[in-house]
Protein: SDR family oxidoreductase
Organism: Sphaerisporangium flaviroseum
Amino acid sequence: MGQPLEGKVAVVAGATRGAGRGIAVQLGAAGATVYATGRTTRAGGSPMGRAETIEETAELVTAAGGHGIAVQVDHLDPAQVKNLAERVAREQDGRLDVLVNDIWGGDPLTRWDVPFYEHPLEDGLRLHETAVHTHIITSWHLVPLMVARGGGLVVEITDGDSLDYRGSFFYDLAKVSVMRLAVAQAKELSGHGVTALSLTPGFLRSEAMLDHFGVTEDDWRAGTAKDPHFIASETPAYVGRAVAALAADPEVARWSGQALSSWRLAKEYGFRDTDGTRPDWGRYMEEVVLGGQEPGDGRR
């Protein structure tokens, strides 16, 4: 698609791995300068205990055709986020075109096998700090750069595009809260030329998910032996291409406040996943998971 974002500046908060990394790389492929933030660096890890680093993400952004800049940030620390905003303003002459809030950190805090009153309360409350408070803090410090220039795009990454229950009390509240953050920001920013929306991937074939199924990206279909629905999964690049398409759309304001999905935007903008297919997790969920049809590949 060329480089429609050449000269644009983006911050992807939570870009160490998964959707955040996929989004950062695809913004880079479209020509953007991308600040990739997170806690895990080559010098030290985070409570997530994963090997991926923000330096690797920044290098992938540059290799894709953009300019990647790794910045270690704990997005629960307002001082660190303030320093990030000041650095972007200083280095980019006040310019920020795209902010992606993809901070999560909730995997080790989420329980799927117990009712909420048996879920460790400390973990549940901490999850909301890492998955919701971080988004608020980040927007609070960085959105003013967009307001000052009269334009920009805020993308809140969540899980799901509806209010359907997500299987775990604290997890559900966190993901719906992120959707509501997009609605609230859209309302308050509408007069400043800034668009805010939420976006969900489908069954994400992240690094952690590949590890969970004991597969690599090259042989990922073997993971269907554990879960047949894995056949409908998508790479992080898919949601990344969704964000890049939104950022390049001169009429992106028409989406403001909406809860969007990678599969919906793939149809709207005409992009595909890295294997040339177009996964549609929404259709697959309706027809197979809920409708009882035999699993297809979900990848038209």
User: Anything to note?
Assistant: The mean pLDDT is 96. The domain at 9-289 is CATH 3.40.50.720 (Rossmann fold).
